[in-house]
Amino acid sequence: MRFPKLRVAGRLLAGLLFFALMVEVLIFSPKEISTPEDIRTKKSQSETPEEQHMEGASLVETSDGRKEWELKADEAKGSKEKGYMTLKKVQAKFFSKNDGTFFNVTGDRGQVWLNTKDMEVQGNVVIHSSNGHIFKTNSVYYKSGDKALRTGDPVTMVGPKDLNGDRLNLEGRGLYASIEDGFIDIQDDVRVKKTLEDGRNVAIRSTKARFSSKSKVASFKDDVTVDIASTRITGPEAHFEYDSKTQTLTSMKVEGGVRISDVDKWATAKKVNMSFTKDRFVLNGSPRLVQNNDELRGEEIIFLDGGKTVQVRRAKAKFEDTDSKEFP
Protein backbone atom coordinates (compact mmCIF):
# COMPACT_ATOMS: atom_id res chain seq x y z
CA MET A 1 0.00 0.00 0.00
CA ARG A 2 2.51 2.62 -1.17
CA PHE A 3 0.17 5.05 -2.97
CA PRO A 4 -1.24 6.79 0.16
CA LYS A 5 2.29 7.42 1.39
CA LEU A 6 3.23 9.01 -1.91
CA ARG A 7 0.21 11.31 -1.72
CA VAL A 8 1.18 12.46 1.79
CA ALA A 9 4.78 13.02 0.75
CA GLY A 10 3.66 15.05 -2.31
CA ARG A 11 1.46 17.27 -0.20
CA LEU A 12 4.29 17.88 2.24
CA LEU A 13 6.72 18.69 -0.55
CA ALA A 14 4.28 21.14 -2.16
CA GLY A 15 3.78 22.89 1.17
CA LEU A 16 7.52 23.23 1.69
CA LEU A 17 7.96 24.69 -1.81
CA PHE A 18 5.20 27.33 -1.29
CA PHE A 19 6.71 28.37 2.08
CA ALA A 20 10.18 28.73 0.48
CA LEU A 21 8.70 30.84 -2.32
CA MET A 22 7.02 33.26 0.13
CA VAL A 23 10.25 33.63 2.15
CA GLU A 24 12.14 34.48 -1.06
CA VAL A 25 9.59 37.17 -2.00
CA LEU A 26 9.71 38.76 1.45
CA ILE A 27 13.49 38.74 1.70
CA PHE A 28 14.59 39.59 -1.82
CA SER A 29 11.71 41.79 -3.14
CA PRO A 30 10.54 44.09 -0.29
CA LYS A 31 10.22 47.16 -2.64
CA GLU A 32 7.33 45.52 -4.43
CA ILE A 33 5.12 45.65 -1.34
CA SER A 34 3.28 48.90 -0.56
CA THR A 35 0.66 49.73 2.00
CA PRO A 36 -2.44 51.80 1.11
CA GLU A 37 -0.93 54.73 3.08
CA ASP A 38 2.23 54.57 0.95
CA ILE A 39 0.17 54.69 -2.20
CA ARG A 40 -1.76 57.77 -1.04
CA THR A 41 1.50 59.59 -0.15
CA LYS A 42 3.11 58.87 -3.51
CA LYS A 43 0.01 60.06 -5.32
CA SER A 44 -0.15 63.34 -3.42
CA GLN A 45 3.56 64.04 -4.12
CA SER A 46 3.22 63.44 -7.85
CA GLU A 47 0.20 65.70 -8.32
CA THR A 48 0.80 69.25 -9.73
CA PRO A 49 -1.35 72.29 -8.90
CA GLU A 50 -4.25 72.65 -11.27
CA GLU A 51 -3.72 75.60 -13.67
CA GLN A 52 -6.46 77.98 -14.64
CA HIS A 53 -6.76 78.90 -18.28
CA MET A 54 -8.83 81.87 -19.34
CA GLU A 55 -9.50 83.47 -22.69
CA GLY A 56 -10.49 87.12 -22.73
CA ALA A 57 -9.20 87.54 -19.15
CA SER A 58 -9.89 90.74 -17.18
CA LEU A 59 -8.39 91.61 -13.78
CA VAL A 60 -8.74 94.69 -11.54
CA GLU A 61 -6.50 95.54 -8.58
CA THR A 62 -7.57 98.03 -5.91
CA SER A 63 -5.51 99.74 -3.21
CA ASP A 64 -6.89 101.80 -0.30
CA GLY A 65 -10.35 101.63 -1.80
CA ARG A 66 -9.35 102.92 -5.23
CA LYS A 67 -8.44 101.31 -8.54
CA GLU A 68 -4.66 100.82 -8.85
CA TRP A 69 -4.64 99.06 -12.21
CA GLU A 70 -6.86 97.16 -14.58
CA LEU A 71 -5.66 94.44 -16.88
CA LYS A 72 -7.01 92.76 -19.99
CA ALA A 73 -5.41 89.91 -21.93
CA ASP A 74 -6.44 87.68 -24.82
CA GLU A 75 -5.26 84.70 -22.76
CA ALA A 76 -4.18 84.12 -19.14
CA LYS A 77 -2.77 80.93 -17.62
CA GLY A 78 -1.59 80.21 -14.07
CA SER A 79 -2.60 79.29 -10.53
CA LYS A 80 -2.52 80.57 -6.95
CA GLU A 81 -0.17 77.74 -6.03
CA LYS A 82 2.38 78.94 -8.59
CA GLY A 83 1.83 82.55 -7.54
CA TYR A 84 1.72 84.10 -11.00
CA MET A 85 -0.17 84.12 -14.29
CA THR A 86 1.27 84.31 -17.81
CA LEU A 87 -0.50 86.60 -20.28
CA LYS A 88 -0.84 87.02 -24.04
CA LYS A 89 -1.72 90.30 -25.79
CA VAL A 90 -1.67 92.50 -22.71
CA GLN A 91 -3.54 95.77 -22.15
CA ALA A 92 -2.92 97.40 -18.76
CA LYS A 93 -3.95 100.78 -17.35
CA PHE A 94 -2.29 102.28 -14.26
CA PHE A 95 -4.02 105.04 -12.28
CA SER A 96 -2.74 107.87 -10.05
CA LYS A 97 -4.61 108.32 -6.80
CA ASN A 98 -4.04 112.08 -6.67
CA ASP A 99 -5.49 113.23 -9.99
CA GLY A 100 -6.77 111.96 -13.30
CA THR A 101 -3.38 111.07 -14.78
CA PHE A 102 -2.81 107.53 -16.03
CA PHE A 103 -0.55 105.34 -18.16
CA ASN A 104 -1.78 102.80 -20.72
CA VAL A 105 0.60 99.90 -21.47
CA THR A 106 0.24 97.31 -24.24
CA GLY A 107 2.50 94.40 -25.22
CA ASP A 108 2.66 90.94 -26.77
CA ARG A 109 2.96 88.97 -23.53
CA GLY A 110 3.46 89.37 -19.80
CA GLN A 111 3.22 88.09 -16.26
CA VAL A 112 1.38 89.24 -13.16
CA TRP A 113 2.42 88.10 -9.67
CA LEU A 114 -0.70 87.43 -7.61
CA ASN A 115 0.76 88.13 -4.15
CA THR A 116 2.71 91.33 -4.84
CA LYS A 117 0.52 92.62 -7.72
CA ASP A 118 3.70 93.34 -9.69
CA MET A 119 3.55 93.00 -13.45
CA GLU A 120 5.86 92.63 -16.44
CA VAL A 121 4.96 93.30 -20.09
CA GLN A 122 7.24 92.23 -22.96
CA GLY A 123 7.40 92.46 -26.72
CA ASN A 124 6.48 95.60 -28.71
CA VAL A 125 5.65 97.53 -25.55
CA VAL A 126 3.86 100.87 -26.03
CA ILE A 127 3.21 103.30 -23.14
CA HIS A 128 0.68 106.14 -23.55
CA SER A 129 0.71 108.90 -20.93
CA SER A 130 -2.47 110.83 -20.21
CA ASN A 131 -1.07 114.04 -21.75
CA GLY A 132 -0.23 112.52 -25.11
CA HIS A 133 3.36 111.24 -24.94
CA ILE A 134 3.95 107.82 -26.54
CA PHE A 135 6.91 105.66 -25.48
CA LYS A 136 8.05 102.45 -27.18
CA THR A 137 10.44 99.85 -25.76
CA ASN A 138 11.08 96.09 -25.51
CA SER A 139 9.84 95.44 -21.96
CA VAL A 140 8.55 97.23 -18.89
CA TYR A 141 8.17 96.15 -15.26
CA TYR A 142 5.55 97.55 -12.86
CA LYS A 143 6.38 97.46 -9.15
CA SER A 144 3.27 97.89 -7.03
CA GLY A 145 5.22 98.92 -3.93
CA ASP A 146 6.41 102.22 -5.40
CA LYS A 147 3.73 102.56 -8.11
CA ALA A 148 6.27 102.89 -10.91
CA LEU A 149 7.07 101.55 -14.39
CA ARG A 150 10.70 100.89 -15.32
CA THR A 151 12.95 99.40 -17.99
CA GLY A 152 16.63 99.44 -18.89
CA ASP A 153 15.97 98.84 -22.60
CA PRO A 154 16.31 101.38 -25.43
CA VAL A 155 13.35 103.79 -25.58
CA THR A 156 11.82 105.97 -28.29
CA MET A 157 9.23 108.67 -27.66
CA VAL A 158 7.01 110.97 -29.72
CA GLY A 159 5.19 113.96 -28.28
CA PRO A 160 1.73 115.27 -29.20
CA LYS A 161 1.29 116.88 -32.63
CA ASP A 162 1.53 120.65 -32.82
CA LEU A 163 -0.55 122.84 -35.15
CA ASN A 164 1.74 122.00 -38.07
CA GLY A 165 1.53 118.26 -37.41
CA ASP A 166 5.12 118.07 -36.15
CA ARG A 167 6.13 116.10 -33.07
CA LEU A 168 9.04 116.04 -30.66
CA ASN A 169 11.02 112.84 -31.35
CA LEU A 170 13.30 111.25 -28.75
CA GLU A 171 15.68 108.32 -28.51
CA GLY A 172 17.33 107.18 -25.29
CA ARG A 173 17.96 104.30 -22.93
CA GLY A 174 16.14 103.33 -19.73
CA LEU A 175 12.79 104.60 -18.44
CA TYR A 176 11.32 105.27 -15.00
CA ALA A 177 7.70 106.48 -14.78
CA SER A 178 6.20 107.45 -11.42
CA ILE A 179 2.44 106.86 -11.52
CA GLU A 180 1.75 108.92 -8.37
CA ASP A 181 4.11 111.85 -9.05
CA GLY A 182 3.27 112.01 -12.74
CA PHE A 183 6.66 112.13 -14.43
CA ILE A 184 8.64 110.00 -16.88
CA ASP A 185 12.45 109.90 -16.77
CA ILE A 186 14.62 108.81 -19.70
CA GLN A 187 17.78 107.76 -17.91
CA ASP A 188 20.65 107.82 -20.40
CA ASP A 189 21.89 108.91 -23.85
CA VAL A 190 19.01 111.26 -24.70
CA ARG A 191 18.71 112.63 -28.25
CA VAL A 192 15.78 114.82 -29.33
CA LYS A 193 14.67 116.44 -32.60
CA LYS A 194 11.92 119.03 -33.06
CA THR A 195 10.89 121.41 -35.85
CA LEU A 196 9.81 124.90 -34.79
CA GLU A 197 6.87 126.80 -36.27
CA ASP A 198 9.21 128.91 -38.40
CA GLY A 199 10.81 125.79 -39.90
CA ARG A 200 14.05 125.84 -37.89
CA ASN A 201 15.19 122.50 -36.51
CA VAL A 202 16.09 121.99 -32.84
CA ALA A 203 18.37 119.13 -31.78
CA ILE A 204 18.99 118.34 -28.11
CA ARG A 205 21.46 115.97 -26.48
CA SER A 206 21.73 115.23 -22.76
CA THR A 207 22.34 112.42 -20.32
CA LYS A 208 18.84 112.48 -18.81
CA ALA A 209 15.39 113.86 -19.58
CA ARG A 210 12.15 114.23 -17.63
CA PHE A 211 8.65 114.68 -19.05
CA SER A 212 5.62 115.57 -16.93
CA SER A 213 2.33 113.74 -17.38
CA LYS A 214 0.55 116.64 -15.64
CA SER A 215 2.04 119.74 -17.29
CA LYS A 216 3.64 120.76 -20.60
CA VAL A 217 7.21 120.84 -19.30
CA ALA A 218 10.24 118.84 -20.47
CA SER A 219 13.58 118.98 -18.63
CA PHE A 220 17.03 117.86 -19.75
CA LYS A 221 19.96 117.36 -17.36
CA ASP A 222 23.71 116.70 -17.41
CA ASP A 223 25.85 117.79 -20.40
CA VAL A 224 22.98 119.45 -22.26
CA THR A 225 23.59 120.61 -25.84
CA VAL A 226 20.92 122.47 -27.81
CA ASP A 227 21.45 123.23 -31.50
CA ILE A 228 19.08 125.74 -33.15
CA ALA A 229 20.05 126.44 -36.75
CA SER A 230 23.66 127.72 -36.49
CA THR A 231 23.48 128.49 -32.76
CA ARG A 232 24.69 126.05 -30.09
CA ILE A 233 23.75 126.38 -26.40
CA THR A 234 25.41 124.23 -23.74
CA GLY A 235 24.80 123.94 -19.99
CA PRO A 236 24.06 121.50 -17.19
CA GLU A 237 20.27 121.85 -17.25
CA ALA A 238 17.56 122.97 -19.72
CA HIS A 239 13.77 123.30 -19.38
CA PHE A 240 11.29 123.53 -22.27
CA GLU A 241 7.66 124.62 -22.06
CA TYR A 242 4.77 123.99 -24.46
CA ASP A 243 1.51 125.75 -25.09
CA SER A 244 -1.14 123.41 -23.68
CA LYS A 245 -3.63 124.18 -26.47
CA THR A 246 -1.43 124.27 -29.58
CA GLN A 247 1.34 121.88 -28.38
CA THR A 248 3.79 124.50 -29.71
CA LEU A 249 7.25 124.75 -28.15
CA THR A 250 7.15 128.26 -26.64
CA SER A 251 10.21 128.79 -24.43
CA MET A 252 13.47 127.36 -23.14
CA LYS A 253 15.49 128.10 -20.01
CA VAL A 254 19.11 126.93 -19.58
CA GLU A 255 20.68 127.28 -16.12
CA GLY A 256 23.82 126.56 -14.14
CA GLY A 257 26.42 128.21 -16.38
CA VAL A 258 25.58 128.66 -20.06
CA ARG A 259 27.66 129.07 -23.21
CA ILE A 260 26.17 130.23 -26.53
CA SER A 261 28.21 130.03 -29.74
CA ASP A 262 27.47 131.11 -33.29
CA VAL A 263 29.42 131.45 -36.51
CA ASP A 264 31.16 134.72 -35.52
CA LYS A 265 30.53 135.17 -31.78
CA TRP A 266 30.09 133.45 -28.45
CA ALA A 267 28.61 134.41 -25.07
CA THR A 268 28.49 133.12 -21.50
CA ALA A 269 26.09 133.72 -18.59
CA LYS A 270 24.70 132.00 -15.53
CA LYS A 271 21.38 131.44 -17.31
CA VAL A 272 19.57 132.15 -20.57
CA ASN A 273 15.86 132.44 -21.34
CA MET A 274 14.69 131.97 -24.91
CA SER A 275 11.29 132.74 -26.39
CA PHE A 276 10.80 130.68 -29.55
CA THR A 277 7.69 132.63 -30.51
CA LYS A 278 9.60 135.96 -30.33
CA ASP A 279 12.99 134.58 -31.44
CA ARG A 280 14.58 136.25 -28.43
CA PHE A 281 17.48 135.19 -26.14
CA VAL A 282 17.99 136.92 -22.78
CA LEU A 283 21.27 136.29 -20.90
CA ASN A 284 21.40 137.00 -17.16
CA GLY A 285 23.98 136.51 -14.44
CA SER A 286 27.30 138.15 -15.43
CA PRO A 287 26.62 137.90 -19.17
CA ARG A 288 29.58 138.28 -21.53
CA LEU A 289 29.64 138.55 -25.33
CA VAL A 290 32.79 138.17 -27.45
CA GLN A 291 32.90 138.93 -31.19
CA ASN A 292 36.04 139.42 -33.30
CA ASN A 293 38.12 139.88 -30.14
CA ASP A 294 35.77 142.63 -28.95
CA GLU A 295 34.11 141.98 -25.60
CA LEU A 296 30.81 143.25 -24.28
CA ARG A 297 29.50 142.86 -20.72
CA GLY A 298 26.43 144.12 -18.90
CA GLU A 299 23.63 143.30 -16.48
CA GLU A 300 21.60 141.74 -19.27
CA ILE A 301 22.35 140.86 -22.90
CA ILE A 302 19.49 140.30 -25.35
CA PHE A 303 19.76 138.60 -28.75
CA LEU A 304 17.03 139.35 -31.31
CA ASP A 305 16.32 138.00 -34.80
CA GLY A 306 18.46 134.91 -34.34
CA GLY A 307 21.36 136.89 -32.92
CA LYS A 308 21.50 139.52 -35.67
CA THR A 309 20.59 142.29 -33.22
CA VAL A 310 22.11 142.65 -29.72
CA GLN A 311 20.86 144.83 -26.87
CA VAL A 312 22.79 145.33 -23.60
CA ARG A 313 21.62 146.86 -20.33
CA ARG A 314 24.32 148.81 -18.44
CA ALA A 315 26.86 147.78 -21.05
CA LYS A 316 30.61 147.76 -20.52
CA ALA A 317 32.51 147.26 -23.75
CA LYS A 318 36.13 146.37 -24.38
CA PHE A 319 37.42 146.80 -27.92
CA GLU A 320 40.64 145.37 -29.35
CA ASP A 321 43.67 147.63 -28.66
CA THR A 322 41.50 150.13 -26.74
CA ASP A 323 40.44 150.73 -23.17
CA SER A 324 37.04 149.57 -21.97
CA LYS A 325 34.14 151.99 -21.98
CA GLU A 326 30.95 151.90 -19.92
CA PHE A 327 27.62 152.99 -21.37
CA PRO A 328 24.55 154.00 -19.42
Short description:
The protein is mainly beta.
If you had to describe this structure to a student in words, what would you say it looks like?
This protein has 328 residues and is mainly beta. Among the domains are: 49-168, lipopolysaccharide transport protein A fold (Sandwich), CATH 2.60.450.10; 225-328, lipopolysaccharide transport protein A fold, CATH 2.60.450. The chain contains two helices and 22 strands. The chain has a 22-stranded antiparallel β-sheet that branches. Strand 11 (208-212) and strand 12 form a beta hairpin. The longest helix has 26 residues, at 3-28. Residues 1-48 and 322-328 have low confidence and may be disordered.
Throw out a few tags for this protein.
single chain; mainly beta; lipopolysaccharide transport protein A fold; 22-stranded antiparallel β-sheet; 11% helix; 59% strand; elongated; disordered N terminus
